């Protein structure tokens, strides 16, 4: 997943969501550490699947 502005701008255009709204949401999630927790969880799940 890329965090570049272009992809998020395209997402906003396709869904009729203003870029400022998307930016605010993702900035808040970054500040709260949500991205890190999601990535850590994904790594744990993939590791468990590989070991199974």
From TrEMBL:
Transmembrane in keyword set: yes
Please list every transmembrane segment annotated in the UniProt record, as residue ranges.
Answer: 6-27
Print the keywords alphabetically.
Membrane, Plasmid, Transmembrane, Transmembrane helix
Per its record, how is this protein called by name? Transposase
């Amino acid at each position: 997943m890329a965090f570049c502005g272009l992809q998020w701008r395209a997402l906003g255009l396709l869904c009729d969501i203003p870029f400022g709204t998307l930016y605010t949401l993702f900035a808040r999630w970054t500040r709260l550490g949500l991205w890190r927790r999601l990535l850590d969880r994904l790594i744990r799940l993939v590791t468990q699947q590989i070991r199974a």
